[in-house]
Write a structure and sequence with these properties.
The complex is a heterodimer of chains A (501) and B (163). Chain A is mainly α and 501 residues long. Chain A has helices at 3-11, 16-34, 41-58, 80-102, 113-132, 136-154, 161-192, 197-204, 212-228, 237-244, 247-273, 291-310, 316-336, 340-371, 382-385, 387-401, 407-421, 425-450, 465-483, 486-495; strands at 64-68, 74-78, 274-277, 283-285. In chain A, the strands form 2 sheets. A two-stranded antiparallel sheet of chain A has the order 1-2. In chain A, β1 and β2 form a beta hairpin. The two termini of chain A are 33 Å apart. Chain B has 163 residues and is mainly alpha-helical. Chain B contains 6 helices and no strands. Chain B has helices at 3-24, 28-48, 52-76, 92-112, 127-135, 139-160. The radius of gyration of chain B is 20 Å and the shape is globular. Classes of the chains: A mainly alpha (501), B mainly alpha (163).
Amino acid sequence: MSQPLAYFFDSLYLIKPETSIIGFLVLILLYDLIFKKEKWLPYISLFGLVVTLFLIIEQYGYNKFAFQSSTNFGMMAIDPFGAFFKIIILLSSIIVILFSILSKELDVARDRMGEYYTLIFGMILGMFLMVSASDLILIYIAVELVSLSSFVLAGFLKNDSRSSEASLKYIIFGGVSSGIMLFGISILYGITGTTNLYEMNSLLQNFDSTNILMILTMILIFAGIGYKISAVPFHFWTPDVYEGAPVTITAYLSVASKAAGIVLLIRLIKSTFVSQKDTFGYWEMIPAFDWQGFLIIISILTMTIGNFSALWQSNVKRMLAYSSIAHAGYILAAIAVLSDQGLVGVMVYFIIYLLMNLGAFLIVIVIKNKINSEELEDYDGLGYRMPLVGVAFTIFLISLTGIPPTAGFIGKLYVFIALVDAKMLVLAVIMLLNSVVSLYYYVRILKHLYLNKPKAETTDIELSFSLKLFILVLAVPNIIFGLYFAPILEFVKTSLIILGI
Amino acid sequence: MNLYDFIFYFFAALTIVSAFFVVTTKNIIYAAFNLLLTFFGVAGIYVLLGADFLAIVQLIIYVGGILILMLFGVMLTNKITNVQIKTEASFVIPASIGVGLFAGVLIAILLKTEWRNSPADIPISTLVPIGKLLMEEWAFVFILLGVLLLIALIGAASIARKE
């Protein structure tokens, strides 16, 4: 057997989670094709996700390359950092599949649910690869896998013109930005002569000043990543797609696909541009490109534009879309610190963002099921008609703002600590001011829920027991982790091992 | 100017001029035929660079596959030839500023950078090395491409299916 092929077979045990996802993708497809009983599909999917979760936990401690080449660097980095985000992606997938069982919006397409779950698995596969890829070719294929699946999912309600519009906009923006990214990748390959990020690192060591070609390349590549995490100025698709897509998919895009994009960005910076790490965990960068300055500008723009645009929205889904742009800004601020402490901020933030954002979207789904609307005006007085939903929504929104004693506060706190420790006070203050602005539009929803009188006489709306339980499962941790967050921190700190320097 | 330069400029001009017509023409059939010339020009440049595999793929997939499919689509759709496509430009000024800036940056960088030059090798067929690479070093990526195609197929079926 030739050497590269031997590397291939030697690495197969490292990609068990990915293999399991591909296996269940095919299984769902075949089951749908042969039995045509869409009732069991979500349970098969959930089973597949749980199996994958076990496989990831099993290989949590690994810290090595998969698919090595002759230069000892590999195509994929299997490390605890990647496993951490794979767990986040899996948890959000499990929650979103539970959402899909509940959502009445998807009822019109019940006979196409086989495709729905297959495409979700395609997305998961793509995101897993985005999380651990350390080779430009694999990165591009991963991004395309996520994009292709999510284009179709965003337009899954074909008879709804908003959903089709969302899909079309997503495709056009996605096509352009991945084209731009590919152009950047090709130039980067032209400069370095390799597609492996770690090999690039050793080749870039002899760049002693910023290089104009490098700046162009990185901005082009960032266009592709920025589109995935909806960073300004690549965010234009976000509000329309989030508003038009089915709520389940909106929730999924806002958490999982964003997490994958962020990890891709971190890995790109960490494995390509860091020359060494000092004792406090700050990264010493190769001066080929000023990542810190670039990220600070993008982060300030992203959080400010996200928050200020959200102020005027009357559709709750659209408002949450802008709010998710703003949250991407906070996370980018934490990355801009370029230190291990910044990464702790990012990881803590993501666990909590998963809980609070998916919680908020669950409430949107529940309300949409009952009153078939996402307009803020129709939320008037709902807090009294659905007490549990009102209280839970309050918790999620307060948490999204970042006020104690909710978990959102802890997430912001760690980002803030990292910024202050790195003496990036201006950015910290801007982030604080942005949180104040965001309070206005989050509380505006509460005003509609509790203070505005409903237009017509209404009765109370009953929820089923399982739904109540589900809401509580998402809402209670938002309080618990606000008061007792040591386990999160522990988990984050043990996961903070990135392959390489 | 030697023969190679001449051939390069010929194909480059062919690509750019036909691409221009693709965007500006109002008739969808003319656009499709101009696209054929664009693809052909790009294939010519690939041949000139010694990338024989890419050139063949370009011809088979783009000219032979996608373009023919497009023409079939036009043929099988009723009355599409008479439909006036909306080609009037909107947002001319912002678009030209944006595109102009981007082009300026690209050209400036193209001229400013010291590109590494090396004399061209005598082109040998790349077919066998590419096949070997795909089956050995990039076997994983090759398998993933299969999954990617499966996803694309399912997505297309899902979009095209009757509700």
